[in-house]
Write a structure and sequence with these properties.
Blueprint lengths: L12 H20 L4 H8 L3 H4 L1 H13 L3 H7 L2 H21 L3 H15 L2 H12 L2 H32 L4 H4 L2 H14 L13 H21 L6 H23 L13 H17 L2 H12 L4 H29 L1 H19 L8 H16 L2 H10 L6 H45 L6 H34 L17 H4 L9
């Protein structure tokens, strides 16, 4: 029997709050462990390629399960889905905090990821169902606290804990929050989302896992160098599997991920802009620590603290931006925000060996201010255009594309940085060799390496600037959505979807 749901008269704020807690600690764990990887590598005596699986494995499970979240959200109640996800996350966290071997720690991280993968799509879906369009901006602004602030706080919190406590504390401090969220959800969580007795297409799940998992893994290891055949192989397998999977979805009556939603123009435009931004913006989370630690010699703790004011700015601005979105729509906010982001990203492409730490903190905070005005308004406006029956597919598609394109953008920009660093290093070395009377000393080699790496970082930030300009151009074509598309019958959706009346100027 199919359950139905409607927008409640009064949003269930207490229920949404506990979903926020669960999603926050789940997303926080994506970046929480990065700073601790060297410490863990030393304790368990494993190689860098092995310890990276603590991050790569987490990301892969997310890439595999997030596309399937559309099926899960439609098939199961949000109550049972959240309880299951939070249980898995809690079990994984407890196991990680007491793991005696590296192998058990990797398994624990994957169990964590299995729980966290569905958190963001589920929370977004509940938010869309709970609030009418005219109030969604404010609501989704608070959602931005989870999506943006949690990953940004991870390195700072991790750096402090690793410097002062055992790395297992990273998991121990999360356990009380996850247990509270789980216990509360068991006794108080109710269902808001509609369910349908749809069947799971196993072949689509397999193709989706190979497709998104292959792309994520391939581009993540390609960031370390394109000479690795495994990078090419997994990217090719992922791309081919993804194409077959997409073609199959168009032939299924109940696709696990509905690609027809891209026929809604503002949703398609919002996802295109988000893809461009993800490729350019999240790569800064990699480039800045490289500059701060490897080139300037600051500690991991200082690198994390550099980003903390920016995270706080985004946290403060997210609800404010949501309210402004409800009042003025997405386009003007995005234009102002992207303009600020372009200018600050360009300044980051002009880094040198003398810029003060405080100047970098301010520049990153201003950049974060610009970013806070872009992501949530654009994403919310696009989702607003979809009929309610497409909410699970819209949220799953949004989160999947964020994961995949973020990995691709980071890999491409880091590859460009490495290539430029190598060529510039060779050039500088030959110049030093020609001018040094007593040959190139070790001190000169170290200086050449840092200058070459700086040149590579600046190039990557400059490319990011150009890419963000493209996002700004696309933003001028955005129109405000004031009412969602009608939930048309499945047999007529292909013919009527292009006549969608929801897009208004």
């Amino acid at each position: 029997m199919t359950e139905t749901s409607a927008i409640p008269n009064k949003p269930p704020y207490a229920m949404i709050a506990i979903l926020f807690v669960g999603a926050f600690v789940a997303i926080l764990n994506e970046t929480l462990l990065n700073v601790a990887l060297p410490t863990i590598m030393h304790e368990f005596e494993v190689k860098p390629t092995a310890v990276q699986w603590l991050s790569t494995g987490y990301m892969l499970i997310n890439g595999i399960l997030i596309p399937a979240s559309a099926f899960l959200i439609q098939r199961f109640t949000n109550r049972s889905l959240f309880i299951t996800a939070m249980s898995l996350f809690t079990i994984g966290t407890v196991l990680a905090s007491i793991s005696p071997t590296f192998g058990i720690l990797v398994v624990a991280r994957m169990i964590q990821a299995a729980g966290s993968a569905v958190m963001m799509p589920l929370l977004m879906n509940v938010m869309l169902v709970s609030f009418p369009i005219e109030k969604r901006g404010t609501a989704m602004g608070f959602f931005g606290l989870v999506m943006i602030v949690a990953p940004a706080l991870g390195p700072t919190l991790s750096g402090y804990i690793v410097q002062h406590y055992d790395w297992r504390t990273l998991f121990t401090i999360v356990i009380p929050f996850s247990v509270i969220a789980l216990v509360y959800s068991i006794f108080r969580l109710k269902n808001l989302t509609p369910q349908r007795p749809i069947k799971l297409d196993v072949l689509s799940i397999i193709l989706s896992s190979l497709g998104f998992g292959g792309l994520l893994y391939g581009f993540s290891i390609a960031g370390e160098g394109w000479s690795n055949p495994m990078a090419y192989g997994t990217i090719i397998v992922g791309a081919v599997s993804l194409v077959i999977m997409i073609l199959r979805q168009f032939r299924l009556e109940e696709p696990i991920l509905e690609f027809r939603i891209f026929k809604y123009p503002m949703f398609a435009l919002s996802q295109t802009i988000a893809i461009v931004l993800s490729m350019a913006l999240f790569s800064a989370m990699i480039l800045l620590p490289i500059y701060v630690q490897d080139i300037r010699g600051f500690s991991p703790m200082e690198a994390g603290l550099l980003m903390l004011p920016g995270a706080l700015v985004m946290g403060i601005m997210s609800p404010i931006t949501g309210k402004l979105f409800d009042m003025f729509g997405p386009r003007n906010l995005a234009i102002v925000g992207l303009s600020i982001t372009i200018v600050t990203t360009y300044f980051f492409s002009q880094l040198d060996m003398e810029i003060a730490y405080s100047s970098m903190v301010i520049l990153f905070a201003v950049r974060a201010f610009g970013m806070s005005m872009v992501f949530m308004p654009i994403m919310t406006n696009g989702l607003n255009e979809l009929p309610q029956r497409y909410y699970p597919h819209g949220t799953a598609m949004n989160n999947t594309l964020q994961q995949v394109t973020g990995a691709i953008g980071a890999a491409v920009l880091v590859s460009l940085m490495n290539a430029r660093s190598e060529s510039k290093g060779e050039e500088l070395y030959m110049q030093a060799l020609a001018t040094a009377e007593n040959g190139v000393t070790k001190e000169m080699e170290a200086s050449i390496l840092k200058e070459a790496m700086l040149n590579g970082v600046n190039l990557s930030f400059f490319i990011s600037t150009i890419v963000i300009v493209l996002a700004l151009v696309l933003t001028f074509f955005m129109k405000r959505i004031t009412s969602s598309a009608e939930d048309i019958k499945p047999e007529t959706q292909d013919s009527e979807i292009n006549e969608n009346p929801a897009t208004q100027g």
